[in-house]
Structure formats: structure tokens, C-alpha cells
């Protein structure tokens, strides 16, 4: 009897491939994908700096990063890098495999946000601050779609979320919300800024990323594993 094919997942319909680091390098269109990856990570750091300088609320994880900087003599970007590396350690019991983009995300975004924080100043007036906040949210969605669409693997925090979702009888939405509530609460208790931007980011980032991802997806075919030598 002919087997009915399983329905494609949203990941498959978008063209996202699950690949090992070696497969990511062999999947084709490498110059385009590497350029898009680092453009996305750089813009991600810019979007973080815009929300911070806007002063109306930060990205949920950045509330935590900002809170930590109030108690340690470290830059914002350094705290973001250390946090990302600690999150990567949590991948080990979840048996998640980081991609090339995962490692780049953990380091490059922290460097980029420190650079842009040094270049950007806080705008004067509520209208200008509100515009910077909205621009940061939209830019963050574009940046996320760029680096995900480059097909080099998820960021450290995204991988933690999807890894938990595969191993717990809880929906991905609930897990993401739970993680972000915990980090926002911890960051707020440490002195991080929670505001309108934090709420708007949580509500808008999913739909906006879904909007930008299809046109920014780099279509590749996952390379098959090389076959071993055949006996004569």
C-alpha cells in the first residue's frame, strides 16, 4: 500500500534545512549566505542599541544584560556574549548541535552592540525616542530573518527554546514566553529597564519576522552525506 506523505512542517515549507556545520559549508551559495549572516548579526546589534538608546524598554534578554551591567564592571556587549556562551552550555543536555551561525551569533552580536552604543546617542523628545524604538523593533525582525535565512543554524537563545520544546510536552509558544518572562523578571530585579518597547517587541517580533523571512530565505539543498567505499 502506498504510504501517504506526511504534511510539511512550517520549517520545511520555508525552505529551512537542518544541517551539520560541514553540510552548511557545502550547501552552496556560500558567499551570499556568509554576507547575509554577518549583515543580519550586525543589524541585530544595531537594533539592540536603538532600543537601548530609545529608553522606552529593551528586548527581553537585553533587560537581563542591562541589569547585570549594573553589578559587574563589564560592557553591555560583553555581558551579552557571556550570557550567550552560558546558554550554549545548556544545549549539551538537550543534545542540540550548534551551527556556524550559532557561534557567530554568540560573539558577533555582542561586539556589534557595543560599537553601535558608542556611536548612537539618546534622542531628545518623546516622539524621537518612540520612532527609534519602533525602528529598532522592525530592524530586529529584518536582522533575525537575515541571519536565519542564511541557513547557518539558530542563535543560542533560539536553540535553547526549540531544544526544550522537543523534549517537553509544552508548546513552543509557552516555552518562549516562559523563558522571556524569567529573564525579564531577573533583569528588572537587577535594575534593567522594562517599558513599552519590551511589550511591543514581545508582541510584534514573531509576526514581523514571519513577514520578512520568506523573501530573505536563501534556498539551498541539504548535501547528502558522502557514501562510504563500496566493496567489489
What is the arithmetic mean of pLDDT? 85
Number of domains: 1
Summarize the amount of helix as a percent range.
55-70%
The total strand number stands at: 0
Given helix and strand content, the structural type is mainly alpha
Q: What is the rounded distance between the termini? A: 35 Å
Envelope shape = globular
Unreliable segments (pLDDT under 50, ≥5 consecutive)? Answer: 1-13, 227-232
Q: Count up the helices.
A: 10
The run of helices and strands is HHHHHHHHHH
Main β-sheet: number of strands, strand sense, barrel status?
A: none
Word description of this protein:
The chain is mainly alpha-helical and 232 residues long. The chain has one domain. Helix content is 69%, strand content 0%. Helix 4 runs parallel beside helix 9 (172-190).
Topology of this structure?
Blueprint: H1 10-14, H2 21-26, H3 30-54, H4 60-69, H5 76-94, H6 100-119, H7 126-149, H8 156-167, H9 172-190, H10 196-216
Helix pairs in contact: 3-6, 3-7, 4-5, 4-9, 5-6, 5-8, 7-10, 8-9
Which labels suit this protein?
globular, 69% helix, disordered C terminus, 232 residues, mainly alpha
Structure at a glance:
With 232 residues, the protein is mainly α.
